[in-house]
Amino acid sequence: MSEGSVEAGEQREKCSFAIDVEHAKRFTELRKEQRRAMAFWVHDLVEESNGGITRDQARLEARRRRSELWPTLDQYVERAVRQRLAEEDLAGPWEPLTAREEEFATLAGRGIGKNYPGFLITRTYELPLSLLKHLRTASIRVSEAPLKEMEELGLLYNSLDYTPEEYDKREELVKLVMSAPRIVRQALERYGPWPPDEHPPSSIAAIGTRALNRESA
Questions:
Q1: Most Cβ neighbours (<10 Å): which of 62, 162, 183, 207?
Q2: Is the Cβ–Cβ distance between 148 and 87 less than 8 Å?
Q3: Which pTM does this prediction carry?
Q4: d(CA 13, CA 127)
């Protein structure tokens, strides 16, 4: 199976993530584009068949080929997350999660603050269980060291009593914490269905101006 491919037939689970509103808007536009493209495809198939294929038959054929020609949003998210998890910093191998860690990983709203330059909106996607397990494992293992240091320094929770130095140190460590939603946002920023000449506004903050320059070079 090639990098970024979508595995069929595997048990899947619905999971909610806070994503950039620009990503959500792009997905909404994409669904509209796909509906138009599917309608044109059905029309053309009927026309080209010279009466050999009815409109209902063409619609059934379009539905059978939807995954190939017009991927679902779940498929786009899955492919993007697979590619992000294949990058060196998240690929592992990782020590398997304990039962307690697995339980913690499925709890929503238990991570460090959003650490994100844009506006977020919650969306739900259905992803393979094996991919979610890799996502959650990578998230916890990568975040262990910075979270431990934050706890040792007493910087784990937001406080108005921090000195400027403590605040700066906390911000530095928070940037190293990779929550599952943050990984998904980065996946969409880097590998989502963006037009070749377009980047979401958060991309520069997320992957750096230098990376964007390399992509456009």
A1: 183
A2: no
A3: 0.78
A4: 6
